[in-house]
Structure formats: C-alpha cells, structure tokens
Design a protein that fits this description.
By secondary structure, this protein is α/β, with parallel strands linked by helices. It has two domains: 121 residues, 3-Layer(aba) Sandwich (D-Maltodextrin-Binding Protein, domain 2), CATH 3.40.190.10; 104 residues, Periplasmic binding protein-like II (D-Maltodextrin-Binding Protein, domain 2), CATH 3.40.190. It contains ten helices and ten strands. Strands 1, 2, 3, 4, 5, 6, 7, 8, 9 and 10 form a ten-stranded mixed beta sheet that branches. It is elongated and about 55 Å long.
Length: 292
C-alpha cells in the first residue's frame, strides 16, 4: 500500500540522518563547555583581567592596559571606569573584578570592610582640584571667590563621589578665610545647577557650555584640550586626592592582578601617570597623611 511504502521511506530517512550525525561526531555540548558570558576563563589564551578604576584614571590606565597586553598577549584586559562609590556598589552587588583602583581612601576602606579587597591597598598617585571654565569664559570667572557671585552656574560632582566630597571640603576651608567669608561655601552651593555622578561628566557640562564653572581634578583639564581652561585653587585651600589600588577579593586572576598593580607602581607606570598630571608617589608609601 502507498501508506506503508511512505512509512518505510520515512523510517529509512530517519536511519540515514542519525547515521550522518554519528559519523560527523555530532553531540550536545556539556554544561562545562557552555560557559555562560558571566564566567571568565582563568587559564590559557582566554584569560581575562578586569580592572575597576575611578573615571579620572581613564587616560593613563588605558595606556597601561596596552603595555600590560604587550607583556601578556594571551590576556584580555578590560576596564570599568566610573565614580569610586559606583564601583564599590557594583562590587557589593557581585560584579567580578580583579583590580580595584579608587580616587579616595574612604571608598577603599568601605570595600575592605565589606570583604571585597584582598591584602593591603597601596597609594599609587595623587591628584589636586582645579576650577574649569569654558574656553570663552562667558561668566568672567577668574578666581575662586567668583563662584559665589549671584547667577553663576556651578556644577560639581555629587558629594558621594570623591571629587564632589573634596570640592566641598575645599569650599569649607575657604569659608574659614576672612577674604571669602563664613558663608562662602553656602553661597557657592546655592549656585550649583547640577551634581554629576563622576568628574568626567562635570567636565563635559562645562565644555558644552551648560555651566559657567566646575570643580574637577587637574588631570581632567589637561586631557580636555582647548574647549576649556583651568584656574588654580590656592594651595592652602586645595585638597590632595590619594588613589589606592588593590586586588579584588573575588579575583580569578590574583597573580595577573598583582602584576598589573606592579606595573602601575613601576617607574614606567609612574612616568605615565605624571604625563597625565598625576603626582607620583614612592613605592613604599601606603597611606600618606596629607590625603584629603
């Protein structure tokens, strides 16, 4: 019958397909070989090193990443640049990292207290604050006192961000000087039109003309080009930002993480940081008293 002949043909076709799969070695991939994207290889050509770093470190760390890759061609180095408080929050939420480099010691201590850091952090660079204005300087900002003038649009990093906290510390110091007055910080803060989640966004607001002046790191202005210009903050009022670095507790690459930190602290790393305006530190310096 036609139906029986068709069934026989289907059975024969099924046998041929199965035989073809076997001969080609077809098989389902074991779970161990289907590593999800959240898993990171720790050996061989697929090794990855993930560095969490404060946004102000973007320029020098990207170059240091290239230098590290030249030494370890089989290692993929990736960076997560953000505000230090954001980075700690991400680590607290389970984000995987091998190296953590922050723009202040407070966030590093917070990470240590949460068990997110392995070993003792070391300070590898210092930074200072500066005023930044658009290249055309439409508000005519020339000195720190001008930030308190009525109508001046000021932009700061949020107070939870190291640069924002440093800026407010500096303004408080200025309020203690008779040439600024006890309400100086209050008057400046009344002029704040935006609080940003990292210092790069403060710089961007000023460069785009959305603010008359911002408070950022010296290093950010040096990397910004001709769209902005810097105004110095008196040294007696300025704040020194100290940058600590450490191996993340959950690192799957602790040996490579140690090597990256050694590169940052090496003469090569310190010279590169200096090129971006950072103040290098001695290799045996762990917690300088002048920070903040």
């Amino acid at each position: 019958m036609r139906f029986e002949r068709w069934s026989a043909r289907r059975a024969l076709l099924l046998v041929l397909v199965l035989a073809s799969l076997v001969s080609c070695g077809g098989r389902s991939t074991p779970a161990a070989e289907r590593a999800p994207s959240t898993m990171r290889s720790t050996e061989g050509e697929n090794a990855q090193l993930v560095v969490f770093a404060a946004s102000s470190l973007l320029g020098p760390f990207e170059q240091l990443g290239e230098a590290f890759r030249s030494r370890h061609p089989s290692v993929a180095v990736s960076f997560n640049f953000a505000g230090s408080a954001q980075l700690v929050a991400q680590l607290e939420q389970g984000a995987l990292a091998d190296v953590a480099a922050f723009a202040d010691s407070d966030n590093m201590r917070r990470a240590q207290a949460a068990g997110l850091i392995r070993g003792e952090p070391v300070v590898f660079a210092r930074n200072r604050l500066a005023l930044v204005v658009p290249a055309s300087n439409p508000a005519g900002i020339e000195r720190l006192a001008d930030l308190a003038r009525p109508g001046v649009k000021v932009v700061l990093a949020h107070e939870n961000v190291p640069a924002g906290r440093y800026a407010r510390t500096m303004l408080t110091r200025a309020s203690q000087r008779p040439d600024h007055g006890p309400d100086f910080a209050q008057r400046v803060l009344a002029n704040v039109v935006s609080q940003e989640v990292n210092v790069k966004q403060v710089l961007a607001k000023v460069a785009l003309g959305e603010a008359d002046v911002g408070i950022v790191y010296v290093t950010d202005i040096e990397a910004a080009g001709p769209s902005v210009r810097a105004l110095e903050i008196p040294s007696e009022l300025n704040v020194i930002a100290c940058y600590p670095i450490a191996v993340a507790a959950a690192s799957q690459q602790p040996a490579l993480a140690d090597e990256f930190i050694a590169l940052v602290r090496s003469e090569t790393g310190q010279q590169l940081l200096a090129q971006y305006g950072f103040e290098p530190v001695s290799r045996n310096l762990s917690e300088p008293g002048s920070c903040g």
